[in-house]
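User: Structure tokens for both sequences below?

Assistant:
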Amino acid sequence: MSVPEVLVVGGGVVGAACARALAHRGVTVMVVDAGPKSGVATQAAAGMLAPFAEAISEDPLLSLTVRARDWYRDVAQALWEETGIDIGLWTDGILQIAFTDAEAAEAKNAIAWQRQSGFAADWLSAEDLRERVPGIAEDAMGAVLAPEDGALEPIPLLAALLDSAEARGARLVKGERVEEVLFANGKVSGVRTTAERRSCAHLILAAGCWTGRIGGLPRPVSVEPIRGQMVALPWPNGEPPAVVYGAGGYVVYRGGEAIAGSTMEHVGFDTSVTPEGVRRILQSARRIYPALADAEVLRSWAGLRPGTPDGRPMLGRDPEIPNLWYATGHGRNGILLAGLTGEILGRLFLGETVEHDLEPLDPGRFWTA
């Protein structure tokens, strides 16, 4: 078997997007994923494309996250044509509800700087809000509408990215965990998995919160798991689809269900669902939509998001190892940033122009003074 030009460690949405971008550029790619199902974090994601949900005006990644959101508009149809998979792209906007005077004032300030920065944002009065989402809590004072934000379905997205990559020659290997990175003459020579040694010309680390657990890395990689619990409820009867933030949580319409979340817990690799986590999620969801107060919980689950010390992903080449690349640590923005991450890495790999300032994502920021 020929040695791939690139071996991608991790078959979640980030690894799949990297594989697709490279395969579409004619690079031979192998994706190695530990689980029987690819993308453990992906399986648990809500799928929101919401760069403005928690944005601040000084955020160095804001323009990047906005472009990442728009990337899906650009490629959703192409993915459908390539694979026959509908990623469920929703582009009708996201609401952020204000329940207090302080929240309303903060929201209006956010609208001001977003508009001054050239981004679309609107304030909906209580009356306008109820016209759009009639089942919202009666005491909601209004909401910020980010009209170009949206959502998609993470599992179909992952399937589409992998199918698209495989159609261009990428090979997916499931059920092998990469245990160690191997080196020769100052460069990566391959990896040792639970099944065998695999050689490669270049290595991309896209294993999410497991990245730092891989042996043989040239230096510690600070990507840690952050547990996010979620709950599915029946969507309120007669209520139009919506994606709504508020009361410390969110509710997302997906396939007739209300997907509600989420917690952020530093509990290691524990993916347990806890009564307290579910209680907090339900409290927020029912605060947004009172009709959910008596709704039966259809299911609950938890995923592990890969977080870094500064909350920003690691994207790019290792500062000392020329054929070692990082695409990990995307935290809560894994789905949002995945597609563009793949595109950027593909461009970097082939020496193409990248229009974004990648300094805030440089992996070397954690290891150089």
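Moving on to the next sequence.
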Amino acid sequence: MAGAFAAMTKSHADAVVVLNDGMLITKEKKTISGIAAKRRLPALGFDTLAEVGGLMSYGANLPALFRRGPYFVDGILKGAKPADLPVEQPTQFELFISRKTANALGIKFPQSMLVRATKVIK
């Protein structure tokens, strides 16, 4: 991972975007945000990244998505074919902003964005 960040720094990347991946969410989020902070790169990604030092994150509200699971299980147990069940789009989204990280990077968010954020981490 350090090699990827070295390459980003060498190519003058302005930020790093972390994709929503199971391994990254569970094991690497602190490492990613820590290396990004050392290299002064804003890290943007999934919801919990901002809580461990990333700059900000925006995405679907995962607990709301998981609460829809029983609907699909119920349908399948009642005989519905999984392929016939509708694909649902997320309806609830969250924006997390880390003010601490923003201050450390010299980034100032407009007040209108801070007001709309689901959570501003101090």
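User: Anything stand out in the second?

Assistant: The radius of gyration is 18 Å.
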